[in-house]
Amino acid sequence: MEVDFGKEYGTYEAHLINENVMNMLQGLLKREEEDTQDYRLGGYHSIHIGYIFKQGHYTVQSKLGWGSFSTVWLVRDTHLDKYIALK
User: Fold this and answer.
1) Which positions bind ATP (predicted)?
2) Does 82 appear as a known binding residue?
């Protein structure tokens, strides 16, 4: 079964995976994202993986989700040595 994950991830031949699981994964990868033009002064704060907050206290690992008013990021708290969500 050939699976197209879009131009960012490409097309791959899928093997040894349940088709229901594959359909679920494709749905997750194709979810709607916020408009990158909203990352501007007065809009969303421009953040990237590896971004550091509060003089190294938090390091961005991944985006967890977003909504009309904010984005939620998975960050590493370097003081507590654990992962937390930052909104």
Assistant:
1) 87
2) no
Cα–Cα dist 58/72, whole Å: 13
Q: Domains in the chain, start-ordered, CATH in brackets?
A: 1-31 (no CATH), 34-87 (3.30.200.20)
Count CB neighbours of 7 within 10 A: 7
Model confidence pLDDT, tens digit, residues 57-72:
899 998 888 777 788 8
Sort 51 into a burial class: Cβ within 10 Å, 0-12 / 13-18 / 19+.
middle
Tokens of 26: 């494709």
Contact 14/1 with Cβ under 8 angstroms?
Answer: yes
